[in-house]
UniProtKB/TrEMBL annotation:
<dbReference type="InterPro" id="IPR012349">
    <property type="entry name" value="Split_barrel_FMN-bd"/>
</dbReference>
<protein>
    <submittedName>
        <fullName>Pyridoxamine 5'-phosphate oxidase family protein</fullName>
    </submittedName>
</protein>
<dbReference type="InterPro" id="IPR024747">
    <property type="entry name" value="Pyridox_Oxase-rel"/>
</dbReference>
<dbReference type="Pfam" id="PF12900">
    <property type="entry name" value="Pyridox_ox_2"/>
</dbReference>
């Protein structure tokens, strides 16, 4: 059951999260109605997801047979162990995270200028330091490559986001957990505490 306190509806929050992520999971259905999930790089631009690949790949065969797809992006933050709550009892451990799930239809991009725009977004995300010529549909050095690569646009019909950072906790438990994470100081604990404070229902 989706808990409403974890639901994020602000478009800018969702867009900001997706702009920081490079990896997502594409759900398709094969010609014989078997589901498949494929991990791949993506960009989110102007309300659509984009990915690229081979013109004759398995993903493309699935999409040709059935253009209805799902797409999910998630980032795990801190793991919350049971002993943060009770030193002995094995009550449920959990994890804090951000996730976005979409369903809609996928379509091949045929316009070379849109292909170039999407692939430039990939370069900006995956190679932010630069060191390359901007992909231009009118540049003969890129025209052949743009024609040879498949770029797919996923147009979401539904899109939902869940950011779980202890919004369901009472204030004293919420603050206690922040202190425990700060004391532990593992890789994403500081970022988790920052997110807990950002989405804290007591100071919204």
């Amino acid at each position: 059951m989706r808990r409403k306190e974890f639901t994020i509806e602000q478009e800018e929050e969702i867009t900001e999260f997706l702009s920081t992520q490079t990896f997502g999971f594409l759900g398709t259905v094969s010609m014989d109605n078997k589901p498949r999930v494929t991990p791949l790089n993506f960009v989110y631009d102007e309300g659509c997801f984009y990915f690229h690949g081979s013109l004759a790949g398995e993903k493309m065969k699935h999409i040709k047979a059935n253009s209805t797809v799902s797409f999910t992006v998630a980032e795990e933050y801190s793991l919350i162990p049971s002993y943060f709550k009770d030193p002995l009892l094995a009550c449920p451990a959990t994890a804090f995270f951000k996730s976005v799930s979409a369903s809609g239809h996928a379509e091949k991009v045929t316009d070379l200028k849109e292909k170039a725009r999407a692939l430039n977004r990939f370069m900006e995300k995956l190679q932010p330091e630069g060191g390359y010529l901007t992909i231009d549909a009118d540049d003969p050095r890129y025209t052949g490559q743009l024609k040879a690569v498949a770029v797919v646009r996923i147009v979401p019909e539904t899109l939902s986001a869940k950011f779980k950072f202890g919004q369901n906790l009472q204030q004293d438990k919420h603050e206690q957990l922040q202190e425990q994470l700060e004391q532990r100081g593992e890789a994403k604990d500081a970022a988790t505490v920052e997110m807990m404070r950002k989405y804290c229902p007591f100071h919204s």
